[in-house]
Amino acid sequence: MEAAAAAEAGAIRILLTSFSCCIAAHTVTANGNAQIDTADKKFGTGSGLFDGNDYLSIPDDADFDFGSGDFTIECWCYVTNTASRTIISKWTSGQLSWFLGAGAAGYGFYISSTGANSVLACPLTSWPSTNTWFHIAVCRDGADLRLFVDGTQSGSTYNISTTTLFNGSGIVTIGDDANSNPGFYGQIDDVRITKAVARYTANFTPPTAAFPDS
Question: 80: domain CATH number?
Answer without folding.
Answer: 2.60.120.200
